[in-house]
Amino acid sequence: MLKKYPILKWSLAVLGSVIVLLFVFGWWFISLLPSSEEIGPDVSMTQTVDLPYLSEDIQPSRGKILAIVTSANTMGSTDKSTGYELTELSRAYYVFQANGFEVDIASPLGGEPPVVIDDDDMGKYDFAFLNDSIAQHKVKHTIMVKDITPEAYEAVFFAGGKGAMFDFPENKAIQDIVRYLYQSNKVIGAVCHGPAALVNVTLDNGRPLLENKKVSSFTNDEELLLIPDAETIFPFFLQDKLTAQGARFSKGAMYLEHISRDQNLVTGQNPWSTWRLAETMISALGYTPKHREITAEENAMKVLIAYEEEGTQKAKEVIRQISTVENKPLARELIAVHGAVAIMRGSIGRFFNLVSLTSYAKSESKNI
């Protein structure tokens, strides 16, 4: 039969070859990811005493910081579940605590707010937070924001989570807290969707808080890549709303760490900005942040930012410095994930560059 239809014969041959190539490439790609031996021991039972950053070199008491999380458990009128992002709260919480600040946690409705836990992003600090009885009591019994006394705090931090888009912007108590602290030269911090708390804040002089302020938040592009119908779900795009309020929006690369500081206002673009944002808040409060071992995820961010700003060769130099010279951990799987993001964006060249960097990171890890 195939002799009668040579085109069919060659088409089947080409299709078979493509399938084989895709299978081989997929197998090779998976082999670039860390093995169970590289990942190391299970960290799900981590306690705060297991983390020198928290258990050693205890800092003197410096006051209190208020963390505010969303109470919204669905995205508007849809059935899409949401809540606050655990990693954005846990990492900021421990930075504040390690630097001498007691942390209170509040939400619009009080009580136990809904939480979003992304298993792929969980690290030892995040599991420690889940295993921390004091932190868990606070987060399961959050203070209602209308009961907050702003004078008691040196700073406020708004954790992200898409729910913040629905119950932060119109909350008068949140606006009062932000206005009082900002005008008292205290520090305001917000990450990812957390800056939704700032969009309707008006100062005593009648001007928007955001007017002519340099700020960052989850971007339109980041929102639309994950939720193509975001425009019909959310009350607004956060980037657009901040800009409409007169902010000078500072946009970093998609899903890479990026923060903005405008005096006592500190904002971050996405979850990967949380560590740096929290430590920048400590600096804004007038203190030198306590030394902390940089995580493998943050080191991967350094590689990705180097690639974004200076290209493949510079990214390889950063990999070599981290893995071989400094002998520090590097989450190369995060580089691979950004390769997948490149495919979603239709950037084939970028995909292969990032796969190449993942492979290089694996080879350098063997040289340690």
UniProtKB/TrEMBL annotation:
SUPFAM superfamilies: Class I glutamine amidotransferase-like. The chain crosses the membrane at residues 12-30. Keywords: Glutamine amidotransferase, Lyase, Membrane, Stress response, Transferase, Transmembrane, Transmembrane helix. One of its GO terms (biological process) is methylglyoxal catabolic process to D-lactate via S-lactoyl-glutathione. Pfam families: DJ-1_PfpI. GO terms for molecular function: glyoxalase III activity; transferase activity. InterPro entries: Class_I_gatase-like, DJ-1/PfpI, Prot/Nucl_acid_deglycase. The keyword Repressor does not apply. GO terms for cellular component: cytoplasm. The keyword Glycoprotein does not apply. Residues 83-279 form the DJ-1/PfpI domain. Belongs to the peptidase C56 family. HSP31-like subfamily. This is Glutamine amidotransferase. It comes from Aquimarina atlantica.
